[in-house]
Amino acid sequence: MNLRRALFAAFIAASVVVTACGGAGSGGTKPAVTVGSTNFYEQLTLGELYSQILEANGYTVTRKFNLGNREIVEPAIESGQIDIDAEYLATLLAFVDKNGAIAKPTTDPKTTQTGLQKALDPKQLTVLDFAAATDQNGFVITKATADAKNIKAISDLQPYAGNYVLGGPPECPQRPFCQLGLKTVYGLEFKDFKPLDAGGPLTVAALEGKQIDVGLLFTSDPSIVAKNFVLLDDNKHLQLADNIAPVVRNALLQKDDGTLKRLLNSISAKLTQGELNDMNKQVAVDKKDNKDVAAAWLKKQGLIK
Fold first, then answer.
1. What is 40-71 written as a DSSP string?
2. pTM as predicted
3. C-alpha distances in angstroms, 146 versus 55, 142, 275?
């Protein structure tokens, strides 16, 4: 009996050693991670995407969401109060390098990412891969208009703009990324301009009610999916590249074996504009919980089980 107990104890000890070795071989102890966000629904969903994929792979994650605007969140990541947040390339570059001494935002995401990294180097931060998804100015039309005229890109408006009414914020006619930019970059001259709001409910209602033909909304606005609008491709690159990308403290990356970087990049690789807009619609319109929406998306993409 004693011999059997001794053999059983030896077996358990051997199992513990094998398990411990397996953990070490797959990267050992993973660093604790704090994920932060600013204070609107899209940011909370992105924060959940990052948090949940890390948790599913053995990381201990603390969430510090709804911290406030960028003026609060950026100092928080620089000081180490948070380790990761979701950012927007052009906007963050303009924020951290206000006078453009290091680099200026461009309409090309890769160039903007490169410039942003140069601006982040002194702050010991790294911007990882950017997604196709953006949150920037976009121009939308109804599906009926898109189907009738086969309009998919902003340049496709050229034959019709003279008969169309553009709607947007009151300052749009003088803004280089609004009506002024549509004229200088795309050569579009509209029949009229209707002053509304900055990508808000007035613009949505005017577009739906046929008071305008083209409206300015943000590219990740949930109403694009909810109202079945068509977001036109900015095929001549009028807008600065505000693609979404994770920003991570170098101190965290140095503690990790590369798994964290790979996991976060796997989200960016799958995050299209349509996927982001659908998640935003689920949260903002359908009133689903950010956690549930993020979990469902990660599972659908095969990123977690």
1. SHHHHHHHHHHHHHHHTTT--EEEE----SHH
2. 0.89
3. 42, 6, 20
